[in-house]
Design goal:
Chain lengths: ~350, ~290, ~230, ~230, ~350
């Protein structure tokens, strides 16, 4: 189990980590997500003893890993790491993957077998004798992955392990990570810029922002109940609205958002400034004529300002006094005849509105 | 005189001399060149090298004057038309030096006998008698070979490669002396270098008499007919300067205050003793 | 210029006739300089690694010192070793002066700075991510070093080539501590190609000097081909 | 051993008293070797780049040849230049023998192979993606070269340090083509530190030799500090 | 306009590109997608003259770019390229971005201004004086992007330009690319492993597979009407079913898929072996009791085998004799009470089934 206690790291005058505190349980898959430059790589490097924290402690099974340099090797040997920028040794692919096993004195036959297996698993069977330097970006990344996996570490650290991979390969790798965790009980700590990957794989997610974990929680918590406006934005909640609580009873409040009134479930008292987070998927859009007036929640009339394709869906933005976006399948857009400039009604339940205290600045 | 294609800042004539190391290392030349430079408004460039290399420089016309000490090869050089106007300006003697313990027991012998003895003792088994030779075809080495020959031995057959007692250093005199000192061996040296090194050495002079040990230094011009652009005027001046009374006096007294004995004898009045013609020591070059 | 052609002809003659003196001298050159190169490599690699990966005070100064020692003249190296091993020197009792061993020592000292410096250069050429990768794979110090060296092998072997080139081509130290001795037994002799070249030159035998120079270069070519072969493995 | 200490004392004396001879000799050493290093750098960089980026036949052979020339003894370089510029040589009419210019030429030739080889090494140390980046940004040949060199500046300057070290410490070529002349005018003299050291050594003046060796190293240190400063800019 | 004519590239004995043919119009945004190792980077490098094709020709505005080496520079100067593995020069960030401008002899003031603007645009304002080597992965990628953009090339080549970026940064970069294309008319050719990015940005997409373009078309075509089973799999169509046409009339056929009969719009004759592609979004799942029998299409009863979170949705897989997956919002899963082992009915229209001729192997 990995404990991060007030871990700080500064480079020259720049504080990158400013007191990260958290705990990764044994056997857990923990994802670190956060904007580019947030310090994800830095944090992983600190855990792998590749750099020393400026302040704070990192403990693995209770041992402060940075305290006793004499122990570094044995601690490091518990861990395997996949780096963000994949780098390979100037030898064959098989030799690259074998390195860690050789360090541990594995015998030749075992090495050959494990390497073959690993190649198979990462989808590079038959690449063993290729010179690693000539591999494509994604192939290198998979070699790096195989290299860290064959040593069967107790803790697997991965820094954006699928950044260069196509969705099909990503799926394979994710399955592999999942199996390793399940079958070997490996603790996995990885960073990703792909929030959905965090969600698919991780038991828990830590959102690294401004040098600290802005939120740590299950994927569901992070994605539906972001702890702050920034986290909300980051996890892809497209509708974040600023407002002030103007009335409230039974945990349901009315928020005034620049003239538009929105009903929301919220414990905040009158007068509190809040940010309202509404996932696009929870917003329904219907042609103005068809809308049912008896809906218990928010119904806002508005004009469609844009319809933008997004994967197999379209993102529809409606101006209701405040801009609100929803995601509809192409079929729905066609069926409901939604087009720019058209009048529609936007509806969402008070339960779909998650309110957080507004940022202090 | 010559037209020199490289423009020179001063109007001074340049004189290039290739000299054997013993004249240079003893600083004899350093003492007399300033006098010449002032008298003749010339700049003297001295290249010090082994006799072989010095002759090579001369043969290629890279210098104007040669100062060496190997009569036999000088004769060939002149005979081949490269050198002219040789004048003898100094002489001294070679010495056989060796460890104070003198394991071969040659002290006071004639040079030829001393060499024979060294060879005999050296070739005996379990011997610690060693002879270190310059082995570099220098004037000194030539002299050494001449002594072996005079002792009735065939150098290449009986001496060279006849055993580990005979070692060729293949270096300059100073280094050869240092090596002999290190190995507590015998060697043949010119007196000047030996005296200059004496302070650092445990070697003593064992043989210093015998006609064959005579060492004659001469200066000559490179033949301007062979190399028309050599600086023959100043070269002539230099040769004449070397046999001038002033310089001969300098030579005779050089080193006395430092070593307690002269390093060279002036040739001026000893032409008979050293077996050269009077013209070679006295007659100015015209 | 004809001396150069003469030199070539002479070189060919020496080689095809297997001139025993030249063979002995060449063999001695190769043995002495290769030994020195191997020794220097064995010293330079850990030394260079210690300096490169070290974090001690004065590291920068040390690197500067090493770079400065590139300019150590061979004569000065020769002199220093000479003073140490001459009969009256502190190691005089070993009776090393004028032996091939002394030449090996001198050449090792001579090329150690450049090989250490080049080792440091070679190491700094390795992608830092690879260094981290090795550490993260749990390399011991030795394993780390071996693998980094493997990665830098091109540059390291180039350093070896340079070291060997400098060792076999130097003459100042060889002549001072070796003495350019030509004795009748192989082991007592210390004449190597460069000292022989010097000697021939001082005797004015230019074609012979050039011939020996060509022999030396051919030997160096052989050694370099061997190094290149390893380099590209 | 006491000669070493004596040498240090003598070195300090020579330096603090600003011995005019020593200053002249040192200045000449620096001027000649720096000039040679600059010339060799100017030649080695385009040469190395042409070879490294070239795709012509015999490229590998050429690289091997260059590595082999690392072993070119200074005496042989001296001899070759000597034959070229001696009065009967093809360039004899230039009257270069026994001039500082000749020494510059000889040292340039001497260090050209090693500097070219090290340039090639330095270039191969640059991340290939950066090379592609430069090309893709539309660099002309010259811009490409300049920028690659900037990127490899650490290694290139290390090469310069090595080249300078080799130039200022060599003696064989300097003595053959320079002649170790101490004339009354600065420009006509060709005595440099190494030839002076050789001379002192051959005269058995070991402390003086060592003192001059120390002076040489101090000069090298100064030059290296300058190089390091540029390197870390 | 870029024409690719039968472009092939082999490395040693390995054929990476085997006759790529296509055409990128002036002012177009063209995305190359394809599995890891398909040759996307190789193709871009060939266009940028960084490598030479083994066979075939690449023409830009009619000129064979590989024909005349003397023209290389001027052709290259029309293009800017962002590499997959970002690499920066060992100088400051500002210097890095200025390189291309310097090559073109821009004056100091113009350079400073453009660099400042570019930094602002890629979200690295204030980073100008930082040493580029110390940047994080995503920061480097943005520097590389800025570096290629400041020279305002006619053709912008980007090799997975957002592989290391978080979604927020990705969005910013995409907007930027969009603006560059719109405002400057820059032709943009980029590779991506993020199909949705291809879709969001590109006018047309080329799917690189097995050394050729398996399909070239608008995003809509590629995503809804994949040309082959492999393309279908690759563009994320989760339901690909093998079957044989057993009956057909009016362009609507019945396909036998291992005993289960599926109705599909298709021109294929009876007896033809086909692969049926059905997007998860087009599949509806309803509790067995609620399903309407009058639906004109396919209604298959089945058992839920898994419910897996996927972003803000859940992927529900149902075994109807053949496995079918659909994507439902979390709310829908709760509302409809869908859980593993539950009985449901799966329905989809014949129009939602896209049939392609089965692979020949
Ligand atoms: N050695 C260093 N010196 C100075 N700054 C550094 C150094 N290493 C990292 N940084 C800075 O620290 C910050 C965090 O870097 P880090 O690589 O940890 O970010 P990240 O979260 O992994 O970002 P990305 O998603 O882009 O990879 C960045 O702004 C980076 O520029
Ligand atoms: N120089 C080379 N020598 C040998 N094979 C090479 C070389 N360069 C690339 N390849 C091979 O060509 C194939 C295509 O490489 P490329 O980099 O173009 O793939 P890619 O589509 O960009 O993949 P990725 O999405 O992983 O970046 C890969 O299998 C790679 O290993
Ligand atoms: Mg990172
Ligand atoms: Mg690629």
């Amino acid at each position: 189990m990995i404990e991060l206690e007030d871990v700080s790291k500064r480079f020259d005058d720049k504080a990158v980590l400013a007191g990260v505190t958290g705990r990764i349980e044994r056997g857990e898959i923990f994802a670190v997500i956060g904007p580019s430059g947030a310090g994800k790589s830095t944090l992983l490097r600190l855990v792998d003893l590749l750099d020393t924290p400026t302040e704070g402690a990192i403990r693995i099974d209770g041992t402060d890993v940075h305290a006793d340099k004499g122990q570094s090797l044995s601690i490091r040997r518990m861990m395997g790491m996949v780096f963000q920028k994949p780098a390979v040794f100037n030898s064959t692919v098989a030799e690259n993957i074998a390195v860690g096993l050789r360090f541990r004195g594995a015998d030749e036959r075992a090495i050959r077998e494990k390497v073959e297996d690993a190649l198979e698993i990462v989808g590079l069977a038959g690449y063993g004798e290729r010179r690693a330097r000539t591999l494509s970006g994604g192939e290198m990344q998979r070699v790096a992955l195989a290299r860290a996996m064959v040593i069967e570490p107790e803790i697997l650290l991965m820094d954006e392990p699928t950044a260069n991979l196509d969705p099909v390969s990503v799926e394979k790798i994710e399955e592999l990570v999942f199996c390793i965790n399940r079958d070997l009980g490996t603790t996995i700590l990885f960073s990703t810029h792909d929030m959905y990957q965090g969600q698919r794989l991780a038991h828990r997610i830590g959102v690294l922002m401004n040098g600290v974990f802005a939120q740590v929680g299950t994927p569901r918590e992070v994605f539906t109940l972001p702890a702050s406006r920034d986290v909300a934005r980051f996890v892809g909640i497209e509708n974040v609205i600023e407002g002030v609580v103007v009335a409230g009873e039974d945990g349901t409040v009315t928020v005034d958002a620049g003239g538009v009134r929105v009903r929301a479930k919220s414990p905040f008292p009158r007068g509190e400034r809040v940010s309202l987070c509404i996932r696009s998927e929870d917003i329904r859009i219907a042609p103005a004529i068809r809308a049912r007036r008896v809906f218990d929640g928010n119904i806002l009339p508005g004009t469609v300002t844009s319809v933008v394709p997004r994967g197999p869906f379209s993102r529809v933005t409606v101006d209701c006094g405040l801009p609100l976006s929803s995601v509809l399948s192409w079929k729905a857009v066609e069926d409901l005849d939604i087009r720019e400039g058209g009048r529609v009604e936007v509806s969402f339940a008070a339960e779909s509105v998650h309110a957080v205290r507004a940022a202090q600045d | 005189t010559t037209s020199d294609p490289t423009p020179i800042a001063t109007e001074k004539q340049q004189l290039r001399i290739a000299t054997t190391t013993s004249l240079y290392d003893t600083k004899l030349l350093a003492q007399i060149t300033p006098i010449f430079e002032e008298q003749y408004n010339a700049e003297v460039l001295i290249v010090s090298a082994g006799t072989g290399k010095a002759l090579e420089y001369g043969q290629r016309g890279d210098v104007d004057v040669l100062m060496v000490h190997d009569r036999a090869r000088e004769d060939t050089f002149i005979g081949d038309g490269y050198g002219v106007n040789r004048r003898v300006f100094a002489y001294n003697y070679f010495v056989i030096v060796g460890p104070e313990s003198d394991p071969a027991g040659i002290k006071g012998m004639q040079p030829e006998a001393a060499f024979v003895t060294i060879r005999e003792k050296g070739m005996a088994s379990e011997s610690d008698v060693i002879f270190v030779s310059r082995g570099d075809n220098s004037g000194t080495h030539s002299k050494e070979k001449a002594i072996w020959k005079a002792a009735g031995l065939n150098y290449s057959a009986d001496v060279q490669g006849s055993g580990d007692w005979y070692q060729e250093a293949g270096k300059g005199m100073g280094a050869t002396l240092a090596m002999a000192n290190e190995k507590q061996a015998y060697t043949l040296s010119d007196i000047g270098t030996y005296l200059a090194y004496k302070g650092d050495l445990d070697l003593v002079t064992l043989v210093d008499e015998g006609d064959i040990l005579l060492n004659i230094y001469s200066a000559m011009q490179i033949n301007p007919e062979k190399y028309p652009d050599v600086n023959s005027t100043v070269a002539k001046d230099w040769v004449n300067f070397m046999i001038s009374d002033d310089v001969q006096k300098e030579i005779a007294s050089f080193g006395v205050d430092q070593y307690g004995q002269p390093l060279f004898y002036a040739a001026q009045n000893d032409w008979e003793k050293i077996g050269v013609t009077q013209a070679e020591v006295k007659d100015p070059v015209l | 210029m004809y001396e150069i052609i003469e030199g070539f002809v002479e070189a060919i003659r020496l080689i095809v006739t297997l001139d025993p003196d030249v063979i002995a001298i060449s063999a001695r050159s190769v043995i002495i300089s290769l030994t020195a190169t191997v020794l220097a490599t064995l010293l330079a690699i850990p030394l260079g690694a210690t300096i490169y990966f070290g974090t001690f005070r004065g590291r920068k100064g040390l690197i500067n010192l090493i770079q400065t020692l590139y300019a150590l003249p061979t004569v000065v190296v020769g002199l220093l070793i000479f003073l140490l091993i001459s009969r009256v020197g502190p190691f005089g009792f070993l009776r090393l002066l004028f032996t091939p061993t002394a030449m090996v020592i001198a050449q090792t000292v001579l090329i150690l700075p450049i090989m250490t410096g080049l080792t440091i250069s070679a190491l700094s050429g390795v992608d830092p991510v690879l260094r981290d990768t090795l550490r993260s794979l749990g390399a011991t110090r030795l394993q780390f070093l071996v693998n980094i060296m493997k990665e830098a092998r091109f540059a390291i072997l180039a350093a070896v080539a340079i070291g060997f080139g400098r060792a076999i081509s130097e003459v100042g130290a060889a002549i001072l501590v070796g003495g350019n001795i030509m004795a009748s037994s192989f082991a007592s002799s210390t004449r190597v190609l460069t000292t022989a070249i010097s000697l021939e030159t001082s005797m004015g035998n230019i074609p012979e000097s050039i011939a020996l120079g060509i022999v030396l270069l051919m030997i160096a070519l052989g050694v370099n081909l061997a190094i290149t072969t390893v380099q590209h493995r």
